[in-house]
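Q: I'm writing a short explainer about Acetyltransferase for a general audience and would like to include a description of its predicted shape. Could you first generate the structure from this sequence?
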Amino acid sequence: MIRKAKFSDIDTIMSIINETVEEMKSYGNTQWDNNYPNNKTFINDIKNDSLYVYEEDNYIKGFVCIDNNEAEEYKNLNWSLYEKCMVTHRMAIDNKFRNSGIASKLMDFCEELALKNGVRYLKADTYSLNIKMNSFFKKRGYKFIGKVFFTGKEKPFYVYEKILKEK
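A: Of course. Here's the predicted structure. Afterward I'll give you a sentence or two in plain language.
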């Protein structure tokens, strides 16, 4: 089941983040670290009603944030459409449940949520060193749009888009 995150979920979410940061470090990906994302990030996501968790058997196995907040760095990219969009952020799956389809279920949810809200356009980005997420976006039919640089990161982030079709 996918539901909106609650403040009581923060400890579990941060546990997943800490595991994910350690895994990312193991293959040289410095997208996330001990400073970001943090408790405050997820508290704000919950306050903004934009954080969703995938829960099964009373256990949070993953999460994603989806909202309308585009990074300022997106402004100079050559998008296919210039209309209202939704943006996915901060997706992570508990290490014990990786490769079980949860990430796909969360992305299906994001796409359905966008369509329910009258939005047919999704955007996302991930660090160029995040091989797994870059591969995942391509597998999901997202189109590579370009590169952006975020403060404090030496490598670029790859930016993607997907135009949704009504189901």
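A: For your explainer, you could say: The beta strands are 2-4, 51-56, 59-67, 86-93, 121-127, 143-148, 157-163.
Q: Perfect, that's easy to follow.
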